[in-house]
């Protein structure tokens, strides 16, 4: 229905910055809230950020608040995650996901569609 493809991952030094993109296909991208999650080796997938249908409301995990910024461009069917001051412990696969519900949700099982993920490695 709404396939998602992440890009922008790679290797970055601690303290550096990256911007991830998630491109969506589908006629109703603007009807979905979008979220970013990450999963480190041996860890559960954890919530990072969420943005509402219109982009007027955002929510962040405490661990990234003030450093990460989620935005969306519905005309381009794309959601972004700008990350600054990256830390080695934030090395993980980062996923974007779509949620048709307007209610804020931060658990992975609440989301309807997922991308395949993009690897972020933060070196010390």
Would you mind describing this structure in some detail?
There is one protein chain. The protein is mostly beta strands. It has no helices and eleven strands. It has strands spanning 4-7, 10-13, 18-24, 33-39, 46-51, 58-60, 68-73, 78-83, 92-99, 113-114, 118-123. Strands 2, 4, 5, 6, 9, 10 and 11 form a seven-stranded mixed sheet that branches. The chain has a four-stranded antiparallel sheet with strand order 1-3-8-7, with no helix packed on it. A hairpin with a 6-residue loop joins strand 5 (46-51) and strand 6 (58-60). The protein is globular and about 40 Å long. The chain starts with a strand and ends with a strand.
Calculate Rg over CA atoms.
Answer: 13 Å
Strand segment tally: 11
State the distance separating the first and last CA atoms. Answer: 40 Å
The residue ranges in which pLDDT falls below 50 over 5 or more consecutive positions are: none
Return the structural class.
Answer: mainly beta
Quick one: overall form? globular
Mean pLDDT reading: 94
Order of helices and strands: EEEEEEEEEEE
Count of helical regions: 0
């Amino acid at each position: 229905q709404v396939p998602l493809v992440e890009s922008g991952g790679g290797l970055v030094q601690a303290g550096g910055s990256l911007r991830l993109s998630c491109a969506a296909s589908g006629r109703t991208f603007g009807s979905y809230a979008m979220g970013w999650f990450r999963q480190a080796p041996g860890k559960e997938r954890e919530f990072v950020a969420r943005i509402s249908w219109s982009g007027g409301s955002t929510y962040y995990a405490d661990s990234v608040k003030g450093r990460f910024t989620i935005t969306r461009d519905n005309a381009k069917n794309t959601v972004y995650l700008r990350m600054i001051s990256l830390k080695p412990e934030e090395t993980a696969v980062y996923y974007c996901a779509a949620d048709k519900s307007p209610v804020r949700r931060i658990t992975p099982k609440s989301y309807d569609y997922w991308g395949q993920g993009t690897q972020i490695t933060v070196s010390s």
